[in-house]
Structures are given as C-alpha cells and as structure tokens.
Amino acid sequence: MLVVYEDNHLIIVSKDSGEIVQGDKTGDVPLSETVKDYIKTKYHKPGNVFLGVVHRLDRPVSGLVVFAKTSKALTRLNKMFRDGDIQKTYWAITQNHPPKLEGTLTDWLVRNEKQNKSYAYDHEVPNSKKAMLTYRVIGQSDHYTLLEVHLMTGRHHQIRCQLAQIGCPIKGDLKYGARRSNPDGSISLLSHDVTFIHPVSKEVVHVTAPVPEDRLWKEIVETIKK
After folding, report:
1. Does the CA dihedral 82-86-87-92 come out positive or negative?
2. Separation CA 136–CA 159 (nearest Å)
3. Which of 9, 1, 24 is closest to 205 using CA atoms?
4. What is the pLDDT of residue 64?
5. Cβ burial, residue 159 (10 Å; 0-12/13-18/19+)
6. Could you say which residues of the chain have pLDDT below 50?
C-alpha cells in the first residue's frame, strides 16, 4: 500500500494486486484495516478510527482506491460516485489488439453470483444492466496492447468482461479468456488516475498511481512516449 494523497477528509492509496479492499469470507486482512492502522499510528489516535469505503477494486487489480476519513466526506463521495462526478481512468494490457484504435463499447451485463463472473450481451436480457466504456490504444509491445479505459457505468467486472467480449482479454485474466495467468496472480489492469472536485474544499483533486513493478508494464509504458 502506498499513500498518494491525504488530507483531513480523504485518503487515496495505491493498492497492490492481491489485496482486498473490504473484508470477505477469506478472512484476509483487508486494505481498509491496513489504512485504519496507518491513520491510528501516524496520528496517535486512541480508540476506533473512522474510515469510509467509497468504492472497491477487484482483488487481482492494482491501483487507486479512495477512502473517506470523515462521515461528511463519505456521504458526499458516495453521491459523487453515484452521479458519475468522479473520473477514473484505467490502464489495461490486453492479449490482442482491438478492432479499432479507439471506440465506445456498449453491452448488457448479467452477473452470475455463483461463478463471480459477468456475461456480456449485445442486447437487453433479463437481469442485465447496461454497461458502457470508452477505450483508446496508447501503447504496444510485440505481443500485447496497452489500452486507456474510461468507465461510463460501474458494473461488476465491467472492464474485464467488455474487453474480453471484443476478443481482448486482459493479460493474466483466466476467468475472462487469458491464455495464462500472471506469476503473481494479478491481472494486468491498473486503476491509473482519478480526478474529482474535493467534496469539502471544492478544489480539484487529481492523482496518479505508480505502474506495477513488472517488466512488461515498464516496457509497454515506455512505448507511450514514442
């Protein structure tokens, strides 16, 4: 965990792949508890520390997670996420090149709870939710493509499912059709940057996550500058 932004109301951290944001049936220590311990230690706080979970990232995904340190910030951030007032950009390394250099994907996703997986359809079906994102190619290596993705909706496994639907599964994402897993169990999806108006100060907040310490990530990001 790396703290990339902090003030009295917010804390934004960059999580490693493999970390869970909130507690689940695994019983593993979640990122929320790690952040609470950090705050408690840094500020010598007695008793319980307030920390509001505003959104989640899938366990194998790395990058930015926003938490609220006050109830006022939590209420406002929750509304901002619901209203689409928080702009999040993801970087995804995919196995194949998409059909176009940039585009908008629209699907209807159905979540299968037992499989913890979503399925995409090109038309509305029972229990489906409309999912939209935009993407553009920003980098390329010999075998992989780097996409910048903007979510227009927030659905279960949305980026993973929609990119797989166009034949571009994310590297390491066996669940959605990748050829092989990544050695560390991650998938090559990064919550790269987030921009929003601070819920209390009203100033613009814009933060960026560091790229994972991985040879392919380093190599493919270098191609962005060329």
Report:
1. negative
2. 13
3. 9
4. 97
5. buried
6. none
